[in-house]
Task: inverse folding
């Protein structure tokens, strides 16, 4: 039984067909890697998984209690609540995921506030736990992201994304743009989190190396379509 199931998604921007009848399934505990060249539709698909965007056609089901058969029928408020409580996301651009001038700990605590936690000491403690799990240096937790390196900013995004133990963690090019040595460290953290907590992940990258390191199953996209799909070992065996 898939945890996440999207079917028949299409989306056109002007005369660009960003998604053309795309379907995807994600099973509990797995890492689905989505690869493809720039412009192939990967980010658009991820934004739909995060309910940030609606398709022109298609359906979206999450196998969680008390949700409708098609999440695109939810209104803006319901989508925001679902996103806040059940979906974590890490963007390539930290400006999309973080308030760059607020403290890092505050950025993580904001997620918990949305979910109803109001006790200051608990917010701070939980934010610290999530930052520690993301291997963020705790003595820096009150520094604003704008003063931190790119690798540390991604760790703050990650801490924010996992603070509420989301049903699914979405990662959009989480290491692109970082120094290669830092990329490896962030990937190690993701891998450790995945192994320890069995977090279901969807990882978008144009970097085959990243997908090969992380993904159990791979979907290859081209011009808004899924052109190949399978277990990582099989997909990477092809010539
Ligand atoms: P990828 O993540 O694989 O690079 P995207 O999903 O970002 O691809 O983009 C797919 C196509 O849709 C591209 O041609 C892109 O320019 C277009 N596109 C994506 N989002 C928008 C948008 N909000 N407005 C207009 N065009 C968009
Ligand atoms: P709106 O619905 O008004 O666009 P949201 O409340 O959904 O705004 O998002 C508030 C902030 O949280 C934004 O900075 C956004 O980038 C970020 N965000 C969106 N989705 C998620 C998510 N699943 N997990 C963490 N942060 C998110």
Result:
């Amino acid at each position: 039984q898939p945890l996440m199931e999207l079917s028949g998604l299409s989306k056109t921007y002007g005369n660009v067909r960003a998604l053309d009848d795309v379907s995807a399934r994600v099973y509990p505990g797995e890492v689905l890697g989505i690869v493809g060249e720039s412009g192939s539709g990967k980010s658009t698909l991820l934004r739909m998984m995060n309910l940030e965007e609606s398709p022109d056609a298609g359906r979206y089901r999450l196998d969680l209690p008390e949700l409708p058969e098609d999440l695109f029928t939810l209104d803006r408020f319901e989508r925001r609540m679902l996103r806040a409580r059940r979906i974590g996301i890490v963007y390539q651009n930290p400006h999309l995921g973080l308030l760059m001038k607020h403290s890092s700990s505050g950025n993580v605590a904001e997620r918990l506030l949305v979910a109803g936690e109001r006790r200051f000491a608990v917010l701070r403690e939980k934010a610290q736990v999530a930052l520690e799990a993301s291997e963020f240096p705790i003595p820096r937790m009150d520094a604003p992201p704008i003063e931190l390196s790119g690798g540390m900013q991604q760790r703050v995004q990650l801490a924010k994304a996992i603070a509420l133990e989301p049903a699914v963690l979405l990662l959009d090019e989480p290491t692109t743009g970082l120094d290669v040595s830092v990329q490896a460290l962030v990937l190690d953290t993701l891998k450790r989190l995945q192994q320890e907590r069995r977090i279901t992940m969807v990882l978008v990258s144009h970097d085959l190396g990243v997908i090969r390191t992380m993904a159990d199953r791979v979907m290859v996209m081209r011009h808004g379509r899924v052109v190949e799909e399978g277990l990582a070992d099989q997909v990477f065996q092809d010539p």
The CA atoms of residues 15 and 224 lie 13 Å apart. Residues 180-197 form the longest helix (18 residues). Residues 13, 16, 18, 36, 38-44 surround adenosine-5'-diphosphate (ligand 1) (CB under 6 Å).
